[in-house]
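Hi F.,

I've been meaning to write this up properly since the lab meeting, where we talked about keeping a consistent format for the predictions we share between groups. The idea is simple: the sequence comes first, exactly as it goes in, then the structure tokens exactly as they come out, then a line or two of notes. No screenshots and no reformatting. I'm using this chain as the first example so we have something concrete to point to.
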Amino acid sequence: MTMPPRMAHVANILVAGAIIVLLGLRITGTDVPLLFWQITASLCFLANLDRMNGVAKTFFAIAVLIWIAGALHLSEIAPSATNASSSFFMFILIMGFLSYTTERSRRISTFFAGLRSTSGLRKYVTLNLQTFLLSLILNVGSVHLLAPLAIRRGEEGADQPELRRQALAIIRGFGVTPLWSPLSIAPLLVTSLVAGVSYRELLLPGLIISAGMLLLGWVMERALMRGKPAPEARQTPRTRPDYGVLATLLSVVACISVIALAAGHFLKTSTIESISFAVFSTAFTWALGQGLFAQPATRILAEISAITRRTSREGIMISSVVIMSATVAEISRHVNLAEMHTSVLGSSLIAAVIPAVFLAGGALAINPTVTASLLAAFLAPGWPTGGGLWLAVAMVWGWSMTVSFGPFTGSSLAVSSAVGTSSFVMTYRWNRGYTLTVLSIASPVLFLGTWLAIS
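Output, unedited:
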């Protein structure tokens, strides 16, 4: 049973206010009171119950059972798990605020709509890089923004080569961001699940792998176009794009990075807390500059409620996963999984197949957050010393491939809808060669890297 609309509207505004309080608590190094966090999460869940899918409802129910078990002293919920859970919830909702601010920029919409006037390999490379850049800020929101603006449906059906090229440029450009982007949930969640691995350690290998995957996509598209006639000229007049928009987006990313580094250094906050503070500060300043707060108070409150509602499902899922993972890790310590170190060969083989496990999970509509949490809960406690970084790399690499090859992901569904074809056609037919090539490279690299790290 869902809340009445007016009550849900008020509840979402209260949740947004609680997020500001949470940000203040985390920045000042204060532990989040468990009851305060439970009330906030429950209010968000109940106010947006109609947006919660089966996975979100199941995860939240498990989290509530864990809370009840803690209240009855049947289990102990570590303060660190509560703080981490609230921090991820806070991060998701604050990222929603940044997405809202970006999407309200008319210059950005006009700029990306100008991509319709290009075609061929030039359009693939341009669209691929710009999706990658916008994904750093909007995450999956970049796909929802770009797909309808940049993709031009043809009259020859879904198998038209130009449509295929446009779709793959977007899905592949977004797919590499989970490898390293500080505004993506993937590296932040993985480094929180794999003990002893920091985001800074994961950054360099993530950047190298993402650059390699982007380059591979360009090479494969060039090879496919070789010997084929150039696409017919479009009737749409070419427009001179406003490249100042790219400077704006790069400035936003740079501003977030500088503030996050300063917060981490001077306030001694964790990576996710520093980034959340930086994103909120940047988005708030950008919103002021755009005059978004010059609207009537009722309109501002309505927008705040809408942002909370739009990000509620992901926030509930991720925060519940963190609580569940902490509980599984606690159970694993009681059954001595932490002492069950695998052999060098065994660990290397496990690292090599982790991307395939993510892909299999994606084919079964299992969210990468679930796959990552389960793998980390059972592998991280007993993982050989020195190999933690390669375990984290394997997980974000698998996550990245699932984003661009899983037919049930939000990005795949959004792009396939814009193209006018099935997500299965786009991922399993159009993107199959690329994904299998990446997988054939990833497995031996992960095997060799893990072997050298722990031997």
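Notes:
The CA atoms of residues 405 and 428 lie 7 Å apart.
Confidence is low (pLDDT under 50) at residues 154-159, 336-340.

If this format works for you, I'll send the rest the same way.

G.
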